[in-house]
Every structure is written in C-alpha cells, then in structure tokens.
Amino acid sequence: MLRNKVGVLALAGAAASWSTSALADSVVVLDNYTVERSDERDSDEQPQTISFKDCEENADVLFPLNVSLTGGRRVLEVYVGPESCLDREVRNNDCRVIYGQEIGADNPSIRIPSQEIVGDGGEDCESSLSSGTNASASLLFAFEGSNGEPEADGSDVLQMSYDVTAPDPPQVTGLGQGDGQLVPRWEPLEGEDVTGYRFYCQESPTTQEEVDSGSFDAAGAGGQGGASSAGCETSIVPGRRPPEDARFCGEQAGKTAQRGTVTGVVNDRVYAVGVVAQDVVGNEGVVSNVLCQYPKEVTDFYEAYTAAGGKGGGGFCAFGYGQRANAWSGLVLLGLALGWARRRRRRA
Asked: How do 156-163 and 50-51 pair as beta strands?
C-alpha cells in the first residue's frame, strides 16, 4: 500500500514538473521581419539587410513575435550583444538594451529603430559600430524576471545583417562627347558587392574654351573624347557624397562595366560629371574624380565624307566622283567590246 502511494506521488510530481515546463513563458522571433523603408528593395537586393540609407533615415524594423505567457502581460527586453548578455555574472559593456516594453500573448509585433540596431541610437551610422559587407548584430529577446534581470529560459536570438559601408569610388579615365549625351569611362572596381555605377551631373559656368584648353584628349567622334578637370566650376567634390544640387543623370549595371551614358544634358553646355559605385543593398559611395565636358552634335564617317565633297550614295557599287565615274564606265565597255571582237576572229 505504501509503495502504491509513493508511486502516485512520483507520477504527480513528474506531471506537475512537465506541466510547469510546458507552460513556461517564451518568445520566438518569426523569420518574416521587415525593414519599413520608403522604397522597397527586390528580393535579390537583400531586403532584410539594413543599409546606410535605412540607418540614416532611422527606418523602423518590424519584428513579428510568437509569445507564450502563463499570466497576463510581461516586460519584453531586447539586447544587442552576445548571448552572455542574459547572464548577469558575465555581462559586460558590450550589451545594450534597445527595447523594453510590456506585451501580451496575442502574438504582437514590435518596432525597433534601425539606428538602435546598427549604432548606439545616434545618427552616426558609419562609425557607431564596426561596419562592412555581411556584418550582423545579435539581437536577444528575453522577458524581464522578478529580480529585474532578463531570463535566459524562453528567450530567442536573431542574427540581423547590416551593410552601411559603400564601395570606394572608381577612377574616371575619360568623358566622351555625344549628341545630347556624355560618355564616362572608368576603371572597374574589384569589390565583391559592387553591382553597378551611378552618375551625377551639374551644369557648370566653365566655358567650352576653358574645357578645350585644359587636359582635353579628343580621340574621335561618337563619344570617344576625353575631358578636362582644369578650371571646372562645380560643387561636386571628389571623395564626398553628391551635393543636393547635383542631378542623378544615369547609371550602368554590372560590376565589370567600364563605360556608361549620361543623359538629359544639352548640347554645347558644360557639365561636371562624377561617378559613384553602388552595392547590392543600394549603398552609394562617395564621388570619384570629377571631369568636365560638353555634349555636341557629332559627325559620323559618312557625314564627314559628304561634307568633304563625296557624292556617293553609300552603296557598294555606287560611283561618287562624277565625270571620273563615266570615264571608268567607258573603259570597261571598250574592254568588253575588244574581247568580243577577238573571239569572233578566232572562230572565223
């Protein structure tokens, strides 16, 4: 009889222990969290990665949660730092609390500003934390215990990627002329995350004569010319971000691209042009060296030929030299006639 009572008590204790464990408070961060930016990125542009622009604009990150609570409501805390942040014995200054709010068990979503995740809540997104391609922050989601410390039991960890470092600028080697366009050329970059190049333009009071008297290296028509950086008046500064009065005037996709087309420019007006590199999350770097040039109506080969006196129509068999063409035609007909006469004499 005693043995049966002991067995019943043991089973009851085990059941109570399992029930307490099963009903323990917990929080799980779902995978479909989103950065609430004004311009959405495509799926191949890593939409869940915080960019420099996201941080600069302090875009909120929306984290959907799956919460299980035995009681009514509890305070949820979110830390940035290693998992040791949940252990008060080894916690250090690397642990930062970026969220603390009472929540219920209705599977809520919480918002955290991106500057809190990438930086320290300030606006300096580039230097608040060590940054770079494929960097990440460890986010620890835990309930606050009765002693005011976070509870490791039932907590969750999320690694969130960020990239707030833009590629270095390319070296622009020339700025060709075209009809209503300019053609920048550059040395392609070797960075792994470079996806293309963007162009910024600004009309300059510099004259055509000043451009032509500078380091201009014309290499032919059709957008093959060089450009001048001497005496070019512009507020676009190499090594800095494009100023607000600079206009986006074209782009070229591709890491290995070496040239592109600047559009929206007017013939015979001088423009300063700079090139910036762009990475997979849309970070734009600082401006390259700046060149000045003016678009102009170009002359192709046939236009140059006819302007020089040529009268051909461009066909393979066309004659383009007036009376000379008639003379050559006569010689050809005379040769044919002589050949026909010789064949008749031989037959006779």
From this structure: parallel
